[in-house]
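Problem 12. The chain below contains 309 residues. Write out its predicted structure in token notation.
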Amino acid sequence: MRGAIASFLSNDIQDAHLDLPTVGRWQARDPAEIARDLMDVDYLVIPLDIFLPSAAQAGQELEYALIGMASLFASVAGAFDLGTNMPIIMVSPKDYADGMSVSIAEAAFSFSRSFAGETACPRLLCIPVGHVDPKSLTALISRELDCSLEDTADVVVYDGKQRAVTQLQEIASALQFPHRLDGTASYLVTGGGSGASGPVMVQALSENGAKHIHVLSRSVPTAERLAAIKDMEATGCTVGVQTVDVSNREALAFCLGQIQAGRPIRGIIHAAGSVADGIISSIDRDDIARELNWPDRKRSAALHGNETE
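Solution.
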């Protein structure tokens, strides 16, 4: 099988031991040109290292990485729209030394899964590699692609001579807690007044033993949400609603002090968030910057700051 390594900038650093040609330089190129680049290729390797930031991008590492991912996958998606069809192989080290690189790798795997779902990609393999001779990686990929379809999986981890497969399985309830919660303590949910996931988490806490739940929301809950809270209280728990912007550290500290004066806080679920749906080919730099600069990041920081004080 003939493979190639994806690239989209002229200075991408590729592993010299991965004996595959480089195709791409796809920044600002037409999808038809990219399709021609891939005409004689059986599979495409995307090394996650090409998304890791340079020193010049300090402080904006995740934003630059996501912009690179959106650009690369949109380019490949354009080629797929013109009839290109081949497996995509995401390759990364099994262990990164810093948390930012781990976050970037997880985001890249998510991008690749979205890409596979939006295109006619026949096969996606995400391979975190640990303790594997880079010179053997090409043969390893070929063997994996030769597996029968029933033996395939989205995520395959190689560690020396060991092969571990991650398979997604449906479970009865995604909100089943491992232990019953402390009925004498308080539990907090941010975003429970108006967000989509907050009310679900409030109900899950109630069903798993929490008796004292506090909803922190910037806005007053709607009449519908208040009615749902009343229904939950009928099961034996109390649900208090505090109107507070948790990105305001001083206001949050005052609110938490009032709650803790009554009983200890044993858990916080930060369920506030923002949804900006869109297919990969439509994502641009402004979309990414808008989400990364959303005040929710400040709310997370404020919550963490009050937790550690």
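Discussion. The first strand starts at residue 3 and ends at 6. Students who got a different answer should revisit the alignment rule from Section 12.3.
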